[in-house]
């Protein structure tokens, strides 16, 4: 039996990603959409299990890494990286709306330093959550970092600074280029 996950040691041979986009053939009756609650059940059960097995910090690292991988794949399969910056950012905004991931806004993007502050309203991961005293959108942190890294060819760290989980009504992310040490 073929390994549909590809060679997991080589990030460039992710065969599994080729199968993700064949939704129309496999879901002729139900289609490609599902309720947000189903996505959240998957995400938060994974967070819970990973925390139980490895601890909270490792769970965050794993979820963020998965988001970054997805961001890079999303960039290569769904976005036009040849666009000038403003057009590229507009394209990302529209794709996230089209896919019902959230409404992305760029509060700031410094082309010289790469520093960006982004918000996502109606975020798939947490919109509607009660205030629990912490941010929870680690997957989004990685996802946004993956897109920015793929487009700019620079290493990014993205940290959520506001979240429904902290009592805010929008997710806000601080994105910085990692400078060589």
From TrEMBL:
Identify the residues that the record assigns to the 4-vinyl reductase 4VR domain, covering every copy.
115-177
Signal peptide (from-to) = none
Q: Matching Pfam families, A to Z? A: V4R (PF02830)
The source's superkingdom equals: Bacteria
Q: Which InterPro entries match?
A: NO_sig/Golgi_transp_ligand-bd (IPR024096), V4R (IPR004096)
Q: What is this protein called?
A: 4-vinyl reductase 4VR domain-containing protein
Q: Which organism is it from?
A: Kineothrix alysoides
